[in-house]
Amino acid sequence: MRQVWVRLGGVLFYLGGAALRLKDYNKVESAANLSRGEVGRLGTAILFIVAVIIYTGMKYSHLEQSYMLIAAAVIGAYMAMNIGANDVANNVGPAVGSLAMSMTMAILIAAVFEAAGAILAGGEVVSTVKKGIIDPADIGNPDVFVWVMMGALLGAAIWLNLATWLGAPVSTTHSIVGGVMGAGIASSGWDIVNWDAMLLIASSWVISPVVGGLIAAFTLYMLKKSVFFKPDPIEAAKKVVPIMIGAMGFAFTSYIALKGIKHLVKISFPMALLLGLAAGVLIYLIAKPIIAKKAPYLTPDRDGVNRLFTIPLIFAAALLSFAHGANDVANAVGPLAGIVDILSASDGDAEGAVKVAIPLWVMGIGAIGISIGLALYGPKLIRTVGSEITELDRSRAFCIALAAAITVIVASQMGLPISSTHVALGGVFGVGFLREFLEKRLGQVVETVIQSHQGEADFEEVEQVLYAFRNAPPEDKKRILDELKKMGSQACITAAQRKELSKALKRQLVKRSSLLKIVSAWIITVPVSAGMAAIFYFALRGMMLP
After folding, report:
1. Fewer CB within 10 Å, N side or C side of the chain?
2. What is the domain partition of the chain in residue ranges?
3. pTM, to two decimals
């Protein structure tokens, strides 16, 4: 047998007999590249943790229990990275999935605005016990309170890490709520939990996605009816799209006024709406001439209309990230702030931790940790939200972002505790199920048309039309239906063919496996976080007690 040797990448390979073939080398090289990428991400995360250890150790070296504070800071940093890897995907995922921005651009925008929201508007005072789940006064012992908060942070962080690995976007708020509840029960029993507050939070599991989905679906339906189903979509878009962009300006200005800067300045609900209305009118007046000027250069189809939503989607992703940073980041590092207050206070009173000022360095850990987690591990969840649940274009992504802002405004006024994660994903599912509904309804129309035109002619022509119908975008389906009606008696189809047609037209435009995985993760978030937090509390208690 002829022996053939080849040198690749400085390594000599034998290509004869039982030799390593070139394709095998490529597999090895691909696996090595993947491994190097994972090592690089892990190394970066470890460097951040080490920096947190060094800084905290130097700042609090004078404290008797400085080691506990360092451990708490490490857990807080780990929690922040997991928030970035999981929760931020909801803000930028639809924009990336619709190709309004690249993955790199999305990560940069989200990282900058998440950090800005956390540091600039994160708030001087937040409740360390999220939503009043437990009363710190019922714990009494400051050491026990520290163990409860550390167990809560660690349980929530590990659950977020596991959910990210599984590719399931979950709520950071619900994770930390579950952690605080579980560690609190482990330390003081079931009576310590405010079960009325827990009932409200549990209700948000249903309220958040349903309301977000309904608003997103309604917005998309109105857009389809007023623009995409018109004979000249671009001409219709010149009238409708500026109104929708103005509505986005109204929604996001009100959203930021109510939620994004509430710790900097208190703005009443009516004043927030007035500010939003002023911003919406101004943005409408700016957008209308810009769109009119751009319209002649757009193709008269869905792609042409979608191009009008690119810039609004980028702004929406930035504003959602800012508001998320101002709220969820502060809430996530709240337990760390409580630990800092207890361990650094001279009197060690646990009751003083009900409301504490969050130090700037703690907010910095939250902001930087989120940015690092997003950059290192965020792309997986961004792809899940943006493209793996249902196909998103820019108009659909715009409707999701608008629905998220409107839902939060309505819920804030009604006093409902909702999750921004559930709202955004509810919008994605709402858009997908609306597409399925419209497809099913149009399919029933086709069956009716063909069934009413029975004949003995060759089915080849109608079959071609039906195939085109199945693959046509929604704005072309009306034209195809008109063509079917004109075919008259030539449009013949047997009962068996009609059954096959019905099956072919009932396409599932929402990936059911993603739906099941995400909903399952939502349901178990609080109990799993609680169970983990309780285990970590008992472990800390066992290590710290003499």
Report:
1. C
2. 45-229+309-427+521-544, 437-505
3. 0.78
